[in-house]
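Dear colleagues,

As part of the handover before I leave the project, I'm documenting each prediction I ran so the next person doesn't have to rerun anything. This entry is a single chain, and its sequence is reproduced below.
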Amino acid sequence: MNILDFYNRLEIVPPNLVRHHLEVGAVTKHLLNHWQGEEIDKDLTLRTALLHDMGNLVKYTFPLEAQKYHEVIENEDFWYKKHKELVKKYGDDADLATETMLKEYGFRKETELLKEIREGKYIDDVLKISHEAKLVFLADGVVAPRGIVGVKARIADVKKRYAGNEKMPLWVEALRQNKEVIQEFVDFDLDELEKIDFSQEIEKLKTYDFPLAKS
């Protein structure tokens, strides 16, 4: 099945989250296409990017606000029902919910990579995580609710949206360091990311072959 069939079959990924996954996947694919560093598991990296926020519905707040999610999400009653079901089963920590879900679906390697990212994104030394984890962290880091932006714009957005969150300064520093490390291994300027047209890559990803589970 393709990735959209996969999302639809699970019925836990609302439309704005589908778009987010595809955008993060497109940035990840671009980074992988321009990777000049040591050999890495590119398939695992891309799959993880397309799964990284599968549990995010648990942290949604209802009624949904278009301003917060940057678009009107239809069928709000349906997603509210799914939200309550997921919170009851997995709790309201989106990262942990995602990891538990993916482990249940059989995505064990992807789960381990996401755990590595979760444990590494609030530290002041991103050199401790693998290149695969760095790439997914960076790709996710440059995708804001309104779409793909640069590192500087994303940091400004995060500071505004999460003012007062004590973890955010650590995340910001980790993202900055991560960008510096990745820059050494790609053959284009990462500050140019927000100027790239990712629309064709996003369309290609919609037909990306994605079996329901992997061993």
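The mean pLDDT is 89. The chain has one domain: 3-205.

All the best with the project,
I.
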